[in-house]
Amino acid sequence: MRIAMIGTGYVGLVSGVCFSDFGHDVICVDKDPTKIARLQSGEVPIFEPGLEDLMARNVAAGRLTFTTDLKAAVDGAGAVFIAVGTPTRRGDGHADLTYVMAAAEEIGAALTDYAVVVTKSTVPVGTNRKVAEAVGRQAKVEFDVASNPEFLREGAAIDDFMRPDRVVVGVESEPARKVMADIYKPLFLREFPVVYTGLETAEMIKYAANAFLATKITFINEIAALCERVGADVKAVSKGMGLDGRIGAKFLHAGPGYGGSCFPKDTKALARIGQEVGVPMQITETVIKVNEEIKRRMIDKIFEALDGAPAGKTVAVLGVTFKPNTDDMRDAPSLTIVPALVGAGAKVRVTDPEGQREGEALLPGVKWVENAYQAGQGADLVVLLTEWNEFRALDLGKLARKMNAARMVDLRNVYDRDEVLAAGFVGFEGVGR
Ligand code: UDX
């Protein structure tokens, strides 16, 4: 099958590369000529483990190409995926559909034969019908639309794509369903579950899933705050809760609040949809609020570890990306926490295996260093903010010896108090313990 993938952002690029690996002929399209030129020369613009190799392999096999020419890419394609951005619109919290709608019109004008126009971008309920209208305004041939939301986790995207918990396909005609089944045949043959639904339901599944996961994280974060007050250990609470099969152990790690490109944006969009149709999403609205409070609470915790006097102290921050194995800084807790420290007059030294490129502009007033030990040199506090592997097995004794006052705030509960103190630290704070 020939597939056109419109948009080479995170979802578009990963999906395009993976579809080509299924044996399909994939043409990835982007308006940005610099980006396309980089992709054509084999450069991957995002950090995602395994993506570069997989891309190279499929380019070499002649199944994967990149272009700025949408018209040529759509010509003869059996399916055209829309994977352009849907950022939160300034002012009203709505998902901004400008790019999706513009792509739909352009695709409509470019269609030369029956094709299925598939939305992969996360879009509010009802958008696929609008996409159908937009394509239809321009199209001179038959077409169908489908909704195929993406559940990839950054840092594990290839694996998530190749071994999904499920594939959700919103289709409303037999030919469209057949095209989608052909595209995902390699997965369906291996019996990964597929959920066929109508358009609105598919759109809803994505928002409901992400809001639920954000709620689960926020719930345990709130429990963590309570644990601190009553002398309980949230790590053990998570374990004890998670062993109940109805709850499940995943997404119960207390931390500095969720971030990233999906949870903050999708929870806001869901809340907005609810307000619009007069069914307020009260739980989701609270989750959004509590997540902000959690981040503020982390700042209090760090200030307390500095005896309430951060001015002039040196703080080493380990990790600034919103989670490990990505260079993504979108809505990362570091964007709230680090400026608070800088604003309070602390000298902040930052290290992150991939975060510097994006982070430099976003975190003014900090000093970037190579590793945790350089960050810790003469510092009064080390804050573990993102649990990259290289911060999980620190030589704590070495780190403590380099510091001025060896204190640690571990916002990801990687370390246990006893081991940190035994290594020569004089102070330790985790989350919810
Ligand atoms: C998420 C969803 O998992 C994915 O299905 C969806 O399609 C896109 O959004 P992603 O944003 O890449 O993926 O990261 P994820 O691993 O889900 O983590 C999201 C945030 O929650 C991160 O800030 C992470 O640190 C935080 N988190 C996650 C916790 O604080 N505790 C947890 O137990 C799990």
Automatic annotation (TrEMBL):
Protein name according to UniProt: UDP-glucose 6-dehydrogenase
Family: Belongs to the UDP-glucose/GDP-mannose dehydrogenase family.
Binding site for NAD(+): 30, 35, 86, 122, 154, 265, 330
E.C. designation(s): 1.1.1.22
Entry keywords, A to Z: NAD, Oxidoreductase
Positions that bind substrate: 151-154, 206, 251-255, 259, 323
Protein biosynthesis is among the record's keywords: no
Catalysed reaction, written as an equation: UDP-alpha-D-glucose + 2 NAD(+) + H2O = UDP-alpha-D-glucuronate + 2 NADH + 3 H(+)
InterPro entries linked to this entry: 6-PGluconate_DH-like_C_sf, NAD(P)-bd_dom_sf, UDP-Glc/GDP-Man, UDP-Glc/GDP-Man_DH_C, UDP-Glc/GDP-Man_DH_C_sf, UDP-Glc/GDP-Man_DH_dimer, UDP-Glc/GDP-Man_DH_N, UDPglc_DH_bac
Pathway this chain belongs to: Nucleotide-sugar biosynthesis; UDP-alpha-D-glucuronate biosynthesis; UDP-alpha-D-glucuronate from UDP-alpha-D-glucose: step 1/1
GO molecular function, one term: UDP-glucose 6-dehydrogenase activity
Provenance organism: Neogemmobacter tilapiae
Active site: 262
GO biological process, one term: polysaccharide biosynthetic process
Top-level enzyme category: oxidoreductase
Domain UDP-glucose/GDP-mannose dehydrogenase C-terminal: 316-417
